[in-house]
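Need DUF983 domain-containing protein's 3D structure for a figure. Predict it.
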Amino acid sequence: MRDTATFEDADPLAERPVKPAMMRGWRRRCPSCGSGSMMRSYLKVRDECPVCGEELHHHRADDGPAYLTILIVGHLLAPLILAVYTHWRPEPLVLAVVFSVGCVALSLYLLPRLKGMIVGLQWAKRMHGFGGVR
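Structure prediction for DUF983 domain-containing protein:
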């Protein structure tokens, strides 16, 4: 029961736009229609979109979102920790608690969004079975 108004047109090899698919993934929406929810739970991707029926079980995000999350959080918080410590010299326990909470919060925010972006990229590039042509 696929909606024909999505990116899937008559040509199964037609190029799919990457940026909109990744932005829809960032919002945790179906990369095809942008309406249906991509996630069934925090990090579990649905087998198919509830709106357009696009199959999403093909994705292979694996450890990519975790690596990207660590990369982004580390590059944001490490210089910030250095700047805060050299400028204000807070107590080490206060510094550790504040930045630990910030690190966990930022990681929890980014992880599902980055996973959605990777699934959107895979859909747009027809990777791992998203091509529809066997």
